[in-house]
Every structure is written in C-alpha cells, then in structure tokens.
C-alpha cells in the first residue's frame, strides 16, 4: 500500500464540520503545510482538538483567525488574542481542558479506553457536570476519551511505511493523536526510504499512519 | 533592598534539593533557576515534553524545536530526555515532580490557588497548571505580595480555582508563609518590613510563627 500522497490527495478528505486533531505545542510540531493548505481550501465549521490555539500567525491559531473553526478543545488560548475575542463575541465555542487531562483523553481514545480517572480539576469549575469516583479516599474526575475524524500530525523524519521520528520538543501531542483518529495524515519534514529510521528510533509505528505528505522543512 | 523579583526567586531556590525534578512556571518562577545554590543539581521539567532544560538560548544559537512551555528557545543540560505529552503529565500527576513553582492571581489561607482566569476579562486557559498543582509533591507560589497595593493573599479566593487545598508555601518579597492545618503561618519576614506591614498587605488571617526567622534578602 502506497501511503505517500500529494497534499491535494490527502486534504481532499477534510470536509466542513469535521473534528480534526492537530499536533503541536504553540506551533512547535504543528503541521504548518497542512494548515497553509486548509487556509486556501477554506474548509469551515471545524472542531479542532489541540494543545492550544498557537499564535495569530503560527500554528492552529491561523485557522481561528481565518474563521474556519466553530469549536476548539484546547488547554490554552492566551497566546492568541483572536481566540478570546471570537469566544467573547459568541462566534467560537472554546472548551478549556487541563493539558494533562487532554493528553490522557486522546491517549485513552487511541488505546481503546472509555476514559480516565484524574484528580486534576477536583474542586474547580472543571469538575462541573462530570462524574466523580472515590478510590482509597481520594476523589477523581471521570474524563471521557476524545476521538477525531482526522488527525494532522508532523514528524521530523517519516519513512514510506509511516514510521515517525520526532525532533526535540516537537513530539508533544503528535504520537497520541496518531492513535486517536479515523484517518491519520502525517506531514514529513523529511521523507526517507523505509528502513532509514532504525527501528529503535521509531517513536510512532507506521501502522497508525494512513497517509504521508512531504511538507516544507 | 535588592530587586523584589530577585529576592523572591532567591528565597524559593533555597527550597530545592539536590536531584529534585522541578517545574518552573513562566515569568518570575523561571528566574528561580538562576539562584540554585552551588552543589545542588536540580532537573528542570518542561511540560511540553522534556527534562534537563537549560537556560534560554543565546540569540543566533537557537536549536530547532527546542522550546519551553512558553515557546522560548532554550538549551539542554547533559542527561536531558524528550517524551510525549502523556508521559510528561504522567511525570507531573504521578508524583515524580518534587516541586512546582508558579505565580498566582489569588491564593488563600486554605491553600487554594487561582491563576488561570478572570471571568469576562482574561481567559488564557489553565494549560498545565491544574495538573502541576494537583500532582507535584510541593507547590510553591512565588509572587509579589500585592497587586498594586491590593492583597492577593486572601481569606478565600474569589476567582475560579486552579486547584483546591494544594498550595504548600507562599514566597513574596515580604516573607515566607506556609499553609498548615491551623492556617497560614508567617515563618520568615524580610527585615525591611514589620509584622504590621505584612498583616496590612495580607487579607488572610496570618499566624505569626513562634520562631519567626529573618528572610535572607
């Protein structure tokens, strides 16, 4: 199976109204080539799951600025004033989730779990509407698994089977999202021959990846 | 008297023990790393996915994808390690972080902390703060004692909480306060201030330690 696609072939699957996970942390490890394309394509009413809404000119935030997003599920919006403005104007739904909870919700979905129990958020507004479970005298919140239609992730090196190697802090949410969507598309900073990444260095096994697109370095 | 922020950062640094894994928040808490005593090696954790963080990178020497949780280019110490966001928060929630140092909008005598939103005004999101405050073994609030004269150390927080009853210690330019079952105890005082000065700048009921010590400034 040839997983290597052109950007047109891969992005064709992203439709209005879809739930899309996008990897990265303040833009580091975010597949910017895909975001460039989605800006041009103008796909709209997206629900985006990611760590943050980046900056107005970097990362996920660019889709917010371009008003292609109806809802974000993220841990932080402070670096992108546009997100806050659209939220206060009632144009954008913002669900704020503690970062560690978000990571586990995504991981749980990819691992076939219904959710996780976490102490984070107990006694705060994060607990509102959630089931509480007491174990050995400690209170936990039940946080449900979070899946997406599509995950857009980025690797520093990707081989033609989809095995991924990430650079430094660009790993962040990418390996988790690779497990948690119906369709997983990876942007390869560098596309290499199968076998060029030593199996010891593979951080996301290729089995999770459906499509590979060569991006900009 | 030395710079207020320096006094605070220097005093917090004395709380850190050799070998501690420590997470420092953005801003004043980041300065703590500059004052760690000689012979004490701490391991800095960056919640976007690594341990062994070094100082900020010099201009022109930035390394690609090597940024801290605030998006600043940083450096690495020997022995550093990268990981994904799920492991990063397993480290945090799992009790593997000895101390977290963060700022506050409000903190109260029960150890409640509010530092992530002012409803209707400023809603940056909690990022990793809720997980850090719930999970770290020791939670140290490092901040200026008042916000332009109005108390930040309260009987009870009025802003949405980051976590309930998790703060262990508050360090300001006026002194050191410890949260105990009996209440908030002033254990050290900056000799530039009197007990009355500190009480006047604090809304919380302050218990004065029997053996009140002088804060090193």
TrEMBL record, chain A:
<dbReference type="GO" id="GO:0047371">
    <property type="term" value="F:butyrate-acetoacetate CoA-transferase activity"/>
</dbReference>
<dbReference type="InterPro" id="IPR004165">
    <property type="entry name" value="CoA_trans_fam_I"/>
</dbReference>
<keyword id="KW-0808">Transferase</keyword>
<dbReference type="InterPro" id="IPR037171">
    <property type="entry name" value="NagB/RpiA_transferase-like"/>
</dbReference>
<dbReference type="Pfam" id="PF01144">
    <property type="entry name" value="CoA_trans"/>
</dbReference>
<protein>
    <submittedName>
        <fullName>Acetate CoA/acetoacetate CoA-transferase alpha subunit</fullName>
        <ecNumber>2.8.3.8</ecNumber>
        <ecNumber>2.8.3.9</ecNumber>
    </submittedName>
</protein>
<dbReference type="InterPro" id="IPR012792">
    <property type="entry name" value="3-oxoacid_CoA-transf_A"/>
</dbReference>
<comment type="similarity">
    <text>Belongs to the 3-oxoacid CoA-transferase subunit A family.</text>
</comment>
<dbReference type="GO" id="GO:0008775">
    <property type="term" value="F:acetate CoA-transferase activity"/>
</dbReference>
<dbReference type="InterPro" id="IPR004163">
    <property type="entry name" value="CoA_transf_BS"/>
</dbReference>
TrEMBL record, chain B:
<keyword id="KW-0808">Transferase</keyword>
<dbReference type="InterPro" id="IPR004165">
    <property type="entry name" value="CoA_trans_fam_I"/>
</dbReference>
<comment type="similarity">
    <text>Belongs to the 3-oxoacid CoA-transferase subunit B family.</text>
</comment>
<dbReference type="GO" id="GO:0047371">
    <property type="term" value="F:butyrate-acetoacetate CoA-transferase activity"/>
</dbReference>
<dbReference type="GO" id="GO:0008775">
    <property type="term" value="F:acetate CoA-transferase activity"/>
</dbReference>
<protein>
    <submittedName>
        <fullName>Acetate CoA/acetoacetate CoA-transferase beta subunit</fullName>
        <ecNumber>2.8.3.8</ecNumber>
        <ecNumber>2.8.3.9</ecNumber>
    </submittedName>
</protein>
<dbReference type="InterPro" id="IPR004164">
    <property type="entry name" value="CoA_transf_AS"/>
</dbReference>
<dbReference type="InterPro" id="IPR012791">
    <property type="entry name" value="3-oxoacid_CoA-transf_B"/>
</dbReference>
<dbReference type="Pfam" id="PF01144">
    <property type="entry name" value="CoA_trans"/>
</dbReference>
<dbReference type="InterPro" id="IPR037171">
    <property type="entry name" value="NagB/RpiA_transferase-like"/>
</dbReference>
């Amino acid at each position: 199976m040839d997983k290597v696609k052109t950007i047109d072939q891969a992005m064709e699957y992203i439709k209005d109204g879809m739930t899309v996970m996008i990897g990265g942390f303040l833009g580091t490890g975010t597949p910017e080539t895909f975001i460039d394309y989605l800006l041009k394509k103008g796909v709209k009413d997206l629900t985006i799951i990611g760590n943050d809404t980046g900056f107005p000119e970097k990362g996920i935030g660019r889709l917010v600025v371009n008003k292609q997003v109806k809802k974000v599920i993220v841990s932080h919006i402070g670096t992108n004033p546009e997100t806050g403005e659209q939220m206060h104007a009632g144009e954008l739904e913002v669900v704020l989730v503690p970062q560690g909870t978000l990571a586990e919700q995504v991981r749980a979905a990819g691992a076939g779990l219904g959710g996780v129990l976490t102490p984070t958020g107990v006694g705060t507004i994060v607990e509102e509407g959630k089931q509480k479970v007491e174990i050995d005298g400690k209170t936990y919140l039940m946080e449900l698994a979070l899946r997406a239609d599509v995950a857009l992730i980025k690797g520093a090196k990707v081989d033609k089977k989809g095995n991924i190697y990430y650079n430094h802090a660009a790993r962040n949410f990418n390996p988790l999202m690779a497990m948690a969507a119906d369709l997983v598309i990876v942007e390869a900073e560098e596309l290499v021959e199968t076998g060029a990444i030593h199996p010891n260095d593979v951080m996301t096994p290729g089995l999770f990846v459906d499509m590979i697109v060569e991006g900009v370095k | 008297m030395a710079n207020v922020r320096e006094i605070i950062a220097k005093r917090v640094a004395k709380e850190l023990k050799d070998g501690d894994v420590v997470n420092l928040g953005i801003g004043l808490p980041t300065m703590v790393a500059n004052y760690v005593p000689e012979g004490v090696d701490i391991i800095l954790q960056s919640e976007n996915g690594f341990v062994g963080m070094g100082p900020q990178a010099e201009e022109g020497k930035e390394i690609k994808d090597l940024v801290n949780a605030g998006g600043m280019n940083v450096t690495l110490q020997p022995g550093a390690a990268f990981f994904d966001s799920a492991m990063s928060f397993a480290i945090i929630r799992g009790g593997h972080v000895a101390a977290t140092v963060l700022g506050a909008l409000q903190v109260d005598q029960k150890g409640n902390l509010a530092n992530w939103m002012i409803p209707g005004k400023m809603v940056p999101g909690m990022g990793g703060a809720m997980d850090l405050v719930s999970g770290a073994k020791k939670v140290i609030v490092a901040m200026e004692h008042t916000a332009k004269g109005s108390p930040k150390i309260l009987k009870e927080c009025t802003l949405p909480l980051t976590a309930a009853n998790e703060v262990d210690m508050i360090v300001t330019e006026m002194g050191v306060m410890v949260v105990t079952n009996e209440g908030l105890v002033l254990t050290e005082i900056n000799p530039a201030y009197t007990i009355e000065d500190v009480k006047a700048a604090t809304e919380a009921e302050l218990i004065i330690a029997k053996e009140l010590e002088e804060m090193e400034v």
